[in-house]
Amino acid sequence: MRYFIVDDDKASRTMLKNIIADGDLGVVIGEAESGAHCLSSVLTIQPDVVLIDLLMPGLDGIETMEQLKMKGFQGQFIMISQIENKEMVGEAYEKGVEFFIHKPINRIEVQSILKKIAEQIRLRNSLLVIKESLAHSESAKTSQRRSVKEIVLSILNDLGIAGEAGSDDIITMMEYLIDTYGKMIQLPPLKDLYKAIASKSGIHHMNSKAIEQRIRRTILTAVNNVASLGSIDYMNPVFEYYAPRYFDFQMIRKQMKYMEEEKSEQAKVKVNIKKFLLALYHDTLEQYNEKSKNNM
């Protein structure tokens, strides 16, 4: 998640940045000491979430939020305030604030709220990606043979992770596997695969550990997205297909239970990278070969 902080109190900005960094909740990509100073920056870099103080000199938090929305900003807002005035709080919610963080800033409250809004955004994005994927699938029926990259990207779209940092690594890995091995039952050792795609990408082999971590975090995001879909609709076709095939289903159920109970912390999930990659490989190869037969 990408955050922008707007607060005239430097100490509050620093505290929020530290909480986000220490909790591995995302990255702060900008900050400003007033509403007037943040407008151009927010519109340029388009963060996912703006954390904004309610009372500031010049433009207050609500006025700043209104101007940003009028100029096309579509991210989310979290209001920061020590004000308990119900009318002002109500107005902020009406204008589009998702949550309030109260001053003095409390680490646990901030972490809980940021995790909730991150989950909301992921779920919203995954549903949007599913719609786009369905539209893409319809148009693909009349298209020529798709590349391995296009097939993998379509599957990653279904899982809501096409834009994650590890998605390029996963695509490169599938291209490498199909070009090098063709049809196989089991994957080579993961360490060999990480080194192979590091070399294929022109990256020194010592960075293979970084590739592993990017892929692990990307699969964990897929776990959260699929669990979110299942907690809303157990009969969702994306959930029904991918949950048991790409993941350890007990892990998905555990994550769903945490979401249903609205716990602030996430379930401790052990990602099975090999199961995910093997399922993705078989699906990619099947679609790739099917397209090849149809175009003969």
Note down, in words, how this protein is organized.
It is a single chain. This protein is α/β, with parallel strands linked by helices. It has two domains: 104 residues, Response regulator (Rossmann fold, 3-Layer(aba) Sandwich), CATH 3.40.50.2300; 174 residues, no CATH class. Strand 4, helix 4 and strand 5 form a beta-alpha-beta unit.
Fold blueprint:
Elements: E1 2-6, H1 10-22, E2 27-32, H2 35-45, E3 49-53, H3 61-70, E4 76-81, H4 86-95, E5 97-102, H5 107-140, H6 148-158, H7 167-180, H8 190-200, H9 208-232, H10 237-246, H11 249-260, H12 273-294
Parallel strand pairs: 1-2, 1-3, 3-4, 4-5
Helix pairs in contact: 2-3, 5-6, 5-9, 6-7, 6-12, 7-8, 7-12, 8-9, 9-10, 9-11
Q: Structural class from helices and strands? A: alpha/beta
Secondary-structure element series? EHEHEHEHEHHHHHHHH
Distance between the termini: 45 Å
The dominant shape is: elongated
Unreliable parts: none
**Helical amount:** 55-70%
